[in-house]
Amino acid sequence: MENRYLSTLTNDSYFNWWDINHNSRECSSMPLLVNVAARVNAAESSTNYNKQGRLDYYLIYIISGSLTVKTRHGGADAFENDLFIIPPKSSYEIKTKDLPLRYLCVHFTGSDVIKILNEYEISLFPKINKLSYKNHMLLRFNTLFDGFAKNDSLRDKELALLLERLFIEASRGIKNATSEKVLLAKSIRFINENYPTKISIPYLAKLENMCVTSYNILFKEQVGMAPTKYIIKLRIEHARELLESTNLPIEEIGLSCGYPDINFFSRVFKKYVGVSPSNYRKQIIPLKN
Prior knowledge:
eight-stranded antiparallel β-sheet, disordered N terminus, 8 strands, elongated, 11 helices
């Protein structure tokens, strides 16, 4: 691993690394060859820029926090449980986005890398591989780290096998992530049917057998907004329909949308629509006439 890279990461970071060769080895006669593996904990913002790129493949798996990644092939944000691989000789810029940031990485090469990645349906950057929250990637990385302790003639072969087991786990996580999106239908259906009532985010997470943090992240990925904002959106849309189609008092409309306090309802409505409920009703009356 290059000293320039190390100095960037170890500034305000906790950095454990395991290295076979400080110079990243290019594709060899071995089908798969591991050069370096690392665990990074960053408490402050930083930028890692490599103009020439490495000679090997650079894989990052995010445990918590997020990164913004740019290469000549495009850019993307990577979040918790995301995995991406930057190909060799590709310049890149990696910036911390959300802190604290914790991620695991491994640099590897070999004559059969593309064939192996295709077999396990793992894409290269700018594609971000989204993994299920129910995977064993940490265990696979820890086993890989342990493999570096065996300094003998068989180490390269063992590390190659351990890395392929990591790819297998990643492949399972990618496939399971698709089914997780289907599972969210249970909590989304509950929201759609009960949005006027008080809804607990921990209860929604429990419906999907997930922790609150993982649920919030996955919900935002699938729906495009946090579950609390989605609930508010449904309530406000319902309020607009009632204001447009009925003569119900505003206080009653607010109550039917989950806002028993008329003042709070008016503030929320104005924040999302731009005008108060009473002014919104006044605006749509001329249109009906």
